C-alpha cells in the first residue's frame, strides 16, 4: 500500500518534469526556460526524497540540501546575466 | 519495519498530495499565456509541493526509525526561503528585458514608474 503510494508519487513527479521539459523546448523567451529549469531542479529534489524513503536509507539527505542550494545559485546567476549582461562585475576604475 | 501502519501512512499521504500539486503546477506552466503568470504557477505551487514532500519524508523517518533529520529540516527551511526570492529575481529581470505581456493584460502600473526614473541598462 505505502510502496504503491510512493511509486505513484515518483511517477507523478516524472510527469511534471516531462511537462516542464516541453516548456523548455518551446518556450518563447529566456526567462520561460529559466523558470522551467528552476522547477525541474525543485522536482528532482523531491524525487530524491521519495527515493530515499523507498530505499530506507538516510544517505541521500545531503544531496537534497546541495541540490536546493545549486538550483538557487544558478537561477540567481541567470537573472543577473539577463538584467546586467555580466554576472560578476569588475571593480570600477577611477 | 514498525507494526503500526497508520504512522507511516501519514508521511506517504503527504508525499502523494505533494506530487499531485506538482502535476497541477506543471499543467499551469504549460497552459498560461505569458511569462509572468507562468512564474506565478511555477513558483508558488511547486514550492508547496516540495515542502509537502519533504515534510512527508521527515515524518516518515521520524515515525519508522525515530530519527530526526536535521539536514531535512534545513532543506525545508532553505527551499521555503529561497524559492520565492529566485522567482522574484527572474521575473524582475524579465520585465527589465522587456518580455511582452499577454494580450489580455489590462493594466501595467510599473511602466510609468520605470520611465519616470529613466532606467539605463549599463552601470
- How many angstroms separate the termini of chain A? 69 Å
Sheet with the most strands, sense and barrel status of chain A: none
Structural class of chain A: mainly alpha
Radius of gyration over C-alpha positions of chain A, nearest whole angstrom: 17 Å
The largest β sheet of chain B comes out as:
none
Q: What is the H/E string of chain B?
A: HHHH
Shape type of chain A: elongated
Question: What is the number of beta strands of chain B?
Answer: 0
Structure report:
The complex is a heterodimer of chains A (about 90) and B (about 120). Chain A has 3 helices and no strands. Chain A is mainly alpha-helical and about 90 residues long. The mean pLDDT of chain A is about 90. By secondary structure, chain B is mostly helical. Chains A and B meet through helix 1, helix 2 and helix 3 of A and helix 1, helix 2 and helix 3 of B. Chain A: This is Multicomponent Na+:H+ antiporter subunit F. Chain A: Keywords: Antiport, Cell membrane, Ion transport, Membrane, Transmembrane, Transmembrane helix, Transport. Chain A: Belongs to the CPA3 antiporters (TC 2.A.63) subunit F family.
Q: What labels describe this entry?
A:
heterodimer, A: 94 residues, mainly alpha, B: 123 residues, 4 helices, 75% helix
List the helices and strands and how they pair.
The complex is a heterodimer of chains A (94) and B (123).
Chain A (H helix, E strand, L loop, with lengths): L1 H25 L3 H25 L6 H24 L10
Chain B lengths: L4 H27 L3 H31 L4 H27 L13 H7 L7
Helix pairs in contact in B: 1-2, 2-3
Quick summary:
The complex is a heterodimer of chains A (94) and B (123). Chain A is an all-alpha fold and 94 residues long. Chain A has helices at 2-26, 30-54, 61-84.
Amino acid at each position: 500500500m505505502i510502496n504503491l503510494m510512493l511509486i505513484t508519487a515518483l511517477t507523478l513527479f516524472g510527469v511534471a518534469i516531462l511537462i516542464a521539459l516541453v516548456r523548455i523546448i518551446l518556450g518563447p523567451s529566456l526567462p520561460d526556460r529559466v523558470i522551467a529549469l528552476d522547477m525541474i531542479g525543485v522536482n528532482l529534489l523531491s524525487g530524491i526524497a521519495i527515493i530515499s524513503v523507498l530505499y530506507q536509507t538516510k544517505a541521500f539527505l545531503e544531496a537534497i540540501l546541495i541540490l536546493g542550494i545549486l538550483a538557487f545559485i544558478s537561477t540567481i546567476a541567470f537573472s543577473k546575466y539577463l538584467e546586467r549582461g555580466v554576472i560578476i562585475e569588475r571593480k570600477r576604475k577611477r | 519495519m514498525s507494526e503500526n501502519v497508520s504512522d507511516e501512512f501519514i508521511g506517504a499521504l503527504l508525499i502523494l498530495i505533494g506530487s499531485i500539486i506538482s502535476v497541477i503546477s506543471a499543467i499551469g506552466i504549460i497552459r498560461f499565456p505569458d511569462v509572468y503568470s507562468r512564474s506565478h504557477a511555477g513558483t508558488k505551487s511547486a514550492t508547496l509541493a516540495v515542502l509537502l514532500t519533504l515534510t512527508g519524508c521527515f515524518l516518515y523517518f521520524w515515525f519508522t526509525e525515530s530519527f530526526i533529520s536535521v539536514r531535512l529540516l534545513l532543506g525545508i527551511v532553505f527551499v521555503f526561503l529561497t524559492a520565492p526570492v529566485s522567482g522574484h529575481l527572474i521575473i524582475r529581470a524579465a520585465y527589465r528585458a522587456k518580455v511582452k505581456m499577454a494580450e489580455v493584460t489590462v493594466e501595467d502600473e510599473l511602466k510609468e514608474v520605470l520611465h519616470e526614473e529613466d532606467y539605463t541598462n549599463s552601470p
